[in-house]
Task: structure prediction
Amino acid sequence: METNNKKSSIKTVNPFTNKVEKEFEVMTDEEVDIVIDKAAKAFNTWKNVSFPERAKIIHKVASIMRERKEALGKLATIEMGKLLRESIYEVELSANIFDYFAKNAEKFLADHSLETEKGEAFICYEPIGVLLSIQPWNFPYYQITRSAASNLMAGNTMVLKHASNVPQCAQIMEDIFKEAGLPDGVYNNLFVPGNAVGKLVSDPRIKAVSLTGSEAAGASIAAAAGANVKKSTLELGGSDPFIVLEDADLDKAAETAVYGRMWNAGQVCVSPKRIIVPESKKTEFLNKVKVIFGKLKVGNPLDADTDVAPLSSEKAAQDVEKQIQKAAQQGAKIELGGKRLDRPGAFLEPTLITGVTPDMDAFYEEIFGPVFVLYSYKTVEDAIKLANATDFGLGGTVLGKDIEKAKAVARKINTGMVYINHVTGIAPELPFGGTKRSGYGREQSPAAIYEFVNAKLIRVTEPDNLY
Ligand code: NAP
Result:
């Protein structure tokens, strides 16, 4: 609900202007209780709705999103600042994910028979109830979709707590679900701040929790889930390596790395955050990167020729600037950029850093902004060691002409996803998720739909046939 309460933390602040555009009322505990109750009651009927009926509604969600991709895209750009073309791409991708699960859920969740020595045995998959889903702002539609598409098709219901800075995207998705025919209570927004969500995990009507966001938020939600013996999945931060092998095309590598890193102003969990090139090619690569940096146009995210958008908020820009300053104080070299732009909005110059070493914080931290950190290696083993010298384990890229060699390197990188010759090729049928401190569990692909269902064994045999 929109509000005149100027103290609400749930609001749209356009990062291009830093002006407040719309505020929403924070839900009271009583209102939250009503929402969870609606979701719990809706589960009793939604779980029995047939797959074709569910699919009809979810396909409709996809088609509404496609029809309105420009308007939806513009809204995301206004709320969190990303380039309009990136917002529109995100809407199209989300529609594809909804279609994928609408089309395939029945097949994925069909009974699975098991070979057993005695009698008959099979697994049947049952939805478990209300999922609490907590999502970040950097892909306002895609993050909802990744969580909702598989779970709604599986027969679960959801309460979704979106990031406080994207309430209009949250609201419009709830409206689209309704318009598509989703029964009341199956999908519900919670307009509450992040620090008010942890206590909901212990609510007996909530059966599981899924969080995408920071390590700190993930750890506290997972602790609450553990204490209440509830299943959780976490998709957290990353510090993805981007390894350029000796035989890679250096021009292509420089271009792929720069545009990959500047995507969404560097606020992508699977962005190439550590670029690792052969020592012998470092100077040549650095020069190529500098030329590309020189052409980057930072500006209005609604303009088609802008390359680098503002960050999602003033605070985000300040935080990244501080990380850069700290890296410089600790001895790293800021080759280009590093400062705020002299204009309104949450802008930060695209930044190129070299000379980061293991005794600096920047070596370990995730930098969530347009910051390109360049490393070099002498042997491929050194490159792999460097790639794995992080507590994160989300994604990574290997570039090289010899695909078998690139695959061998990919196998040695300790992350949930490695992309060869490209940055983060997201598709509905491909799993998304990490390992180590980047979290656990998978979204997208068939794997996603098994996260929050009860895989129940049914076995048939006579008692006297058991031993
Ligand atoms: P964040 O602060 O953790 O926020 C993410 C969500 O969690 C928001 O809805 C937030 O609500 C909520 N939240 C915050 N504190 C919470 C708490 N103590 N308990 C429960 N919920 C809480 O994350 P962020 O810094 O905005 O987002 C960027 C991070 O997300 C980066 O580390 C990025 O790498 C990661 N990320 C990961 C993936 C992935 O798939 N692995 C995808 C996108 C982003 P409020 O907005 O109300 O605070």
